[in-house]
Amino acid sequence: MNKHKGFTLFELMLVIMLMGLLVSSVKFPSLGQEPFDQVDQQSKKVAALINLASEYAVLNNALLGFSVTESSYIFLMFDGKKWNRIEEAPFTENELEPDIKIELMLDGLEWQSQNLLSAVEWIDEEALEQSSEQTEEEKKLSFPQIFILSSGEVSPFDLNISYDNGFDTPITFKVRGEFVAPVLVLDPKQIAEL
């Protein structure tokens, strides 16, 4: 009888197929952060900065503002005549990662008529005239969309921070301010429950 030493072609193909299935089920760590973690970290950073700005405003008896564009945000301080960018860390301009976007929502929030924010005139006519020479993004960053008063009061807002690269399912966290600090961070599960 002639004994074969080795494997048949069928046995080799079966082993290769099983190895392929095992390798495809293993998830290799990526070099960058996961999108969920990126958005979570950015949302917590924005919330922490707004809370810190509220404390700064109280301690320094200052009027602060917060402005956003789709890809950046900045803090402003009112000097009695006009709004100026804050150039000291951590309140300097922050650029976001390319796939992370910010959307500010001011409409649809309940507004109380008896609050400090409703009693103040904020529009500087001179600043509006000068802003006609600026680009749309510079205009957005030169006047606050969210106000942080020296009392610690914060104008109400919803700030959606999203990751959307066009391929994966979009991930959105919400930073919510409701008149007083601290502002809240809501994850996608908490947003769905609203």
UniProtKB/TrEMBL annotation:
GO biological process, one term: protein secretion by the type II secretion system
Localization in the cell: Membrane
GO cellular component: membrane; type II protein secretion system complex
Membrane topology qualifier: Single-pass membrane protein
Keyword Transmembrane helix assigned: yes
Predominant place of localization: membrane
Protein name as it appears in the record: Type II secretion system protein GspH
Organism field: Psychrosphaera saromensis
